[in-house]
Amino acid sequence: MNAALHQQEIAERGFTVIDGIFTSGEVATLLSCIQQADTSNDTFRKTKDLFAIRQFLKEIPGVVPAVFTDKLKEVISRLFGEGYYPVKSIYFDKPGDSNWFVSYHQDLTISVKEKADVNGFGPWTVKQQQYAVQPPLHILEQNFTIRIHLDNTDGQNGALRVVPGSHKKGIYRPETIDWTTETETTCDVPEGGIMIMRPLLLHASSRTTNDHKRRVIHIEFSDQSLPAPLQWSELLQ
């Protein structure tokens, strides 16, 4: 792995793709853990177009060693150093016949255990009994997300489309995107590969058109403590 190249891409473009982080056997182990999960809790969402597990690492603790392999931990250490820990995790299963899509947006909220009135944090939302709040910009600028792809993913089955460099522009409302100056890139990721991105990167996902599944484990990382009494809802150290 060319760590310097990936660090440069994250800094300049807001994302990078690294192939071959998980073997086909390791992907199969991850999928086996997921298939054995009890899906009756509120953190599981199932529709025709989407199956999702919120608080993924908490709901299926047995998957943690299968996710945090030596190879993945090495990638995190070499690209970001020490001190980062998972603070949010979601599993997405986009079926092959899915018409579900997501329009352009930034990931502007973090997940916390309880709501509290803290200067600089807001507005608040609640989704499936999970509190989310928009933190000060510097927290979002430091955080990063790893998306572990359990299927070959391209533009036909929901690979992310992104606006390179948009993470450097603060809060960037999608309705203000000037396509005469911005460009769009589709982030193809093979099975077992990962995409690393900054939360402030503008990104979107299209409908599926090739009948292929798109299963992704989405994990957000931070190296920061929240001001009391706020606490990360999924802190894993």
Give your account of this protein's structure.
Its cofactor is Fe(2+). Keywords: Dioxygenase, Oxidoreductase. InterPro entries: Phytyl_CoA_dOase-like. The chain has helices at residues 3-13, 24-35, 56-59, 64-67, 70-80, 137-142, and strands spanning 15-18, 44-46, 51-54, 85-94, 102-105, 110-112, 124-127, 130-133, 144-149, 160-162, 185-186, 194-197, 203-205, 214-222. A seven-stranded antiparallel beta sheet has the order 1-12-9-14-4-3-2. The protein has a four-stranded antiparallel beta sheet with strand order 5-13-10-11, with no helix packed on it. Helix 1 (3-13) packs across helix 5 (70-80). Strand 2 and strand 3 (51-54) form a beta hairpin. The chain is an alpha+beta fold and 237 residues long. The mean pLDDT is 91. It has one domain (3-222): Jelly Rolls (Sandwich). It contains six helices and 14 strands.
